[in-house]
Amino acid sequence: MDFLLTYGFDQDTIDEVNKNNDAAILYNVELNKKNVVDVLDYLKEIGVNDNAVKDLFLHQIGMFFRTKEEIKTVFDEYEMDSIIKSLNYDVNTVDLIEF
Predict the structure, then answer these.
(1) In the chain, where the domains are located
(2) CB 85 within 8 A of CB 71
(3) Closest by Cα among 93, 7, 10 to 50
(4) Which of 23, 43, 44, 84 is deepest in the core (most CB within 10 A)?
């Protein structure tokens, strides 16, 4: 998961991700690294701040198993500015978005 270091994650955060997820999920992240990177890039591109991106990865890791296109399609159904503000304030608001 060292690729996360280039996205502002520190080693402590990566260790927390490893601790809080089982081996199958971690394997899936590594197996689908390109997809995870695409989602990380998209979130940063639309204005989700670094702390929110890290928190999403820590607490909503399943979101990163969706494709960028799936996430973009869902986000496009909502007011983008509201989504970004909500996620930057509290990443758990992602639970309110219907994927």
Answers:
(1) 2-96
(2) no
(3) 7
(4) 43
